[in-house]
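Quick note —
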Amino acid sequence: MTEVNENYGDFVQRLKKDYSEYSFREGERFAFRAPRTIIYEDCDGQDENGCRLQLLHELGHAILGHREFWADVERIKIERAAWEKARELAEQYNIYYDEEFVEEKLDSYRDWLHRRSQCPRCKATRFQTRGGDYHCPNCEM
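Predicted structure written out below.
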């Protein structure tokens, strides 16, 4: 699959037209704000294909109806699902789906989860309860 020839700004405009049920806003970082707002970065001077993929990823969250998650590990699942949706959209828009780029993005969430789940006192892996609190089986027993 080859990279699309249109520039990033034109691509954003095409998505706005194709997915008019969503609100697309330029912002500081790529994000999805449920239920209908997709925030995208200005891609000036950045890897345009990476920007396109991140934008499709956020659109993937919207299309899949992602709202909330109760456990941090659940976030990894919804991030993976949004990237899989981005893969489908990339194919539809003839955009190169860079597996390495996507795994880097997923690694950032895996690293985040590892840091959050590690007990600051003994470094054991903590478990998260339904309320979102972490508990250390080592320190709290």
